[in-house]
Design brief:
By secondary structure, the chain is of the alpha/beta class. It folds into 2 domains: 23-122, no CATH class; 137-397, Dihydropteroate synthase-like (TIM Barrel). It has helices at 53-61, 96-106, 108-122, 158-171, 192-208, 220-228, 246-253, 279-296, 316-323, 344-349, 359-371, 382-397, and strands spanning 23-24, 43-52, 66-67, 73-83, 89-95, 137-143, 175-179, 212-216, 233-236, 256-260, 304-307, 337-338, 376-379. The strands form 2 sheets. Strands 11-10-9-8-7-6-13-12 form an 8-stranded parallel β-sheet. Strands 1, 2, 3, 4 and 5 form a 5-stranded mixed β-sheet that branches. A hairpin with a 5-residue loop joins strand 4 (73-83) and strand 5. Helix 2 (96-106) packs antiparallel against helix 3, helix 5 (192-208) packs parallel to helix 6 and helix 6 packs parallel to helix 7 (246-253). The radius of gyration is 21 Å and the shape is globular. It starts with 22 loop residues before the first strand and ends with a helix. The relative contact order is 0.12. Its cofactor is Mg(2+).
Length: 399
């Protein structure tokens, strides 16, 4: 037998464990003061114990579970997360029926808050950008850029970009996300005019073929030009905060909108020591503000999708904590988009792999997202993701 020391360090043991975002409590909180408290920013619900297929249907019928987006998944337990005055948060988990009874008995305001959250979590998601949301879909990435972090230059130019998009559709993508500006950390910005020059011909050519096109941009001018060219979705990494004209332009164009969370609004500086009191909850509070801004601009919530913005103003630990609590995002009653493809958190939590060697970690995070009820997976590797999705669906259907 080969001595174990000759095998080198254990790569799994070498990984630093990720600290939990929440302190665990054995019982649901009781008797806390609600006078003057904004429950939406102090008490949060995380669906857990998620099951699918016949298990989900049986749990809902028996009153032991609640559906996610009126679909094939349901949760049978509920984690109640309470912000602590000195920072951090406490998490308590109870069976679904017990948590509902607790809310009803604890306080009328709490009962209303929990009821409102549950109904937003459970309601059916309308079609987004014309795409039904009853089952998860794959969004394929086409970067018409020379400097994107993992595929820069591969689809730089109108014809290569169109060819890449058609190949991704053939591989099973439902939506094509076209971007003309790299938003990786430290990337040099380009002018909206140059971005428009890169993406408009691609968007128009794909839209003319009947393909659902999303435009990945933070500039109002590019939003307007590409929606006019046929884009059905605006995907803004700044959540419509990067350009003062973006909310108005997005509202008037009629396209669906994906609001992504990013700490700050500048990709060049987003990774400069990002800090949160509690990353998953801070993200929710900031996303609530972005949704309110969008609605005030005239964008109906039925047109919105939310994206936690993995890798945008977050450390690897922040990303892991957010991925471990994705179900929190269902509180908005919108489809949830997850974009983890080839991102650096995979290598930071693993063995430092370069972007093209991060597919296994990407698939692991995406399957975890599916288990949490995510509706849209934004990826570079479409064929591999579609295969994983189909196996996941078959396993869930047979549960």
């Amino acid at each position: 037998m080969v001595p174990s020391q000759s095998l080198g360090p254990d790569p799994v043991a070498a990984v630093t464990p990720v600290a939990s975002a929440f302190h665990r409590s054995p019982a649901l909180p009781r008797g806390f003061a609600l006078e003057g408290v904004d429950l939406s920013r102090s008490l949060y619900l995380l669906p857990t114990g998620i099951v699918g297929g016949e298990q989900a249907a049986a749990a809902v019928v028996a009153g032991h579970g609640w559906p996610i987006a009126d679909g094939t998944l349901a949760f049978t337990a509920l984690a109640v997360i309470l912000r602590r005055p000195g920072g951090g948060a406490t998490l308590s988990i109870a069976p679904f029926a017990e948590a509902v009874t607790w809310a009803e008995r604890e306080h009328p305001d709490l009962c209303r808050h929990v009821s409102d959250c549950l109904h937003r979590i459970g309601r059916r998601r309308p079609a987004w950008g014309g795409v039904p949301m009853e089952t998860p879909v794959v969004m394929g990435i086409v970067n018409v850029t020379p400097d994107s972090f993992s595929d820069g230059g591969e689809a730089f130019g109108t014809e290569p970009a169109i060819a890449r998009a058609l190949a991704l559709i053939e591989a099973g993508a439902t939506i094509i996300d076209v971007g003309g500006e790299s938003t990786r950390p430290g990337a040099d910005p380009i002018s909206p005019e140059e971005e428009e020059r890169r993406v408009v011909p691609v968007v128009r050519a794909l839209a003319e073929r009947g393909i659902v096109v999303s435009i990945d941009t933070r500039h109002a001018r590019v939003m307007a030009a590409t929606v006019a060219a046929g884009a059905r979705i605006i995907n803004d990494v700044t959540g419509l905060a990067g350009d003062p004209d973006s909310p108005r332009v997005a509202a008037s164009g009629g396209a669906a909108v994906c609001l992504m969370h990013m700490l700050g609004d500048d990709p060049r500086t987003m990774q400069a020591d990002p800090r949160y009191e509690c990353a998953p909850l801070d993200l929710l509070d900031q996303m609530e503000e972005r949704i309110a801004t969008a609605e005030q601009a005239g964008i109906d919530r039925a047109r919105l999708c939310v994206d936690p913005g993995i890798g945008f103003g977050k450390t690897a630990e922040h990303n892991a904590q957010i991925l471990g609590s994705l179900g929190l995002l269902h509180r908005f009653g919108c489809p949830v988009l997850l974009g983890v493809s080839r991102k650096s958190f995979v290598s930071h939590l693993s063995q430092g792999e370069p972007p093209r060697q991060r597919l296994p970690g990407t698939l692991a995070a995406n399957v975890a997202g599916l288990d949490a009820g995510v509706q849209i997976l934004r990826v570079h590797d479409v064929a591999e993701t579609v295969q994983a999705l189909r196996i996941w669906q078959a396993m869930r259907a047979g549960a």
